[in-house]
Design goal:
The protein folds into 2 domains: 2-249, Alpha-Beta Barrel (TIM Barrel); 259-332. Helices cover 47% and strands 13% of the residues. It is built from 14 helices and 11 strands. Helix 7 packs parallel to helix 8, helix 11 (259-277) runs antiparallel to helix 12 and helix 13 (300-309) packs antiparallel against helix 14. The two termini are 39 Å apart. The model has no long low-confidence stretch (mean pLDDT 95). Bound molecules: flavin mononucleotide. Flavin mononucleotide (FMN) is lined by residues 22-26, 47-48, 77, 106, 108-109, 148, 177, 185, 189, 208-211, 231-234.
Amino acid sequence: MEQTVKPLRFGHLSIWPPFVAAPIAGYTDAVYREILREAGCPYCYTEMVSAKGLVMGGEATFALLEHSEHDRPLAVQLFGSDPQDMSDAVKKIQQTGIEFDAIDINMGCPARKITSQGAGGALLKDVSRAAEIVQAVKSATELPVTVKIRTGWTNSDKAVEIALRLEAAGADMLAVHGRTVAQGYGGKADWDVIAQIARSLSIPTVGNGDITCPKQGVALLRESGCAGVMIGRGILGNPFFFTNLHRLLQGKQPETPGCSERFEAAIDHLERAAQRFGDHRAMLELKKHLGFYFKGMKGASKLRVAMHSAKSWAELVDTIKQASAWSDGAQEA
Ligand SMILES: Cc1cc2nc3c(=O)[nH]c(=O)nc-3n(C[C@H](O)[C@H](O)[C@H](O)COP(=O)(O)O)c2cc1C
């Protein structure tokens, strides 16, 4: 199967397999991206970063740009509503000396605090401004400029028209989440609309929405005519997605991770987070991740309650280790 799955190409980049990790604010930080890379993820985005925050020089905003040298190729994703802010933000990033491989523009976020500023998904209601933003960012960088959109604000009638306007403005690749902004994360992603966009554009389209396993991802890649696919929630607590993707492409059977592998992966994530953020912040940050590692496992809801009541990083690790020993015993019994 390896030969029949072609790389995703745009700008100077050639990404294989053409499966990319979605930006997920609060989750795909530098620590989790490193874990995904080791599992074989070929392309990542930063979490979304405020262009205004960069222009104003906010320390927390700049911290979102940090990444290790192994975390490449990597796109920095910006959100904003003002073309000038967006191009100034790109120049600020270049001044930091932190290197990226592409600049991505968020035109899909449905959160009210973002759309009320005219940013994220709200740009799909003002396509002229959206196109101006693409042009402004293009004029500030030599890097490929990509855009992540949804299929529309409340319906997808103009999805193809919007995509064509962004291509004409200079976008080098478009990632399309097959939901409208109004849908939030509910309902089902509409892969027919994604396929229509993929057929209409000359630049590559990356389809996104509801991919949960590599086999389904390969099938949607083929059926939709997209040049790549993007996985969001399906990779939370599941770096195994990428190890299994590589197995599948080598003609091997994907392996469902057992309880002990999931516990091991969760503890590894906790340890890396502590190294980067310190124990206390690692405990707070990781509580939300950990539930995903144990989803569907016997005793997961009891474990979730115990994890949430942990008062320190050490207590959290202990809780997981105890549950792990218990589950090993249960497996052996
Ligand atoms: C908690 C959460 C945070 C997200 N943060 C971002 C973000 O920062 N930038 C972005 O473009 N999309 C963001 N998304 C959307 C995902 O990238 C993706 O488009 C969406 O989850 C659909 O893909 P999926 O069905 O595979 O999850 C976020 C989604 C979730 C659930």
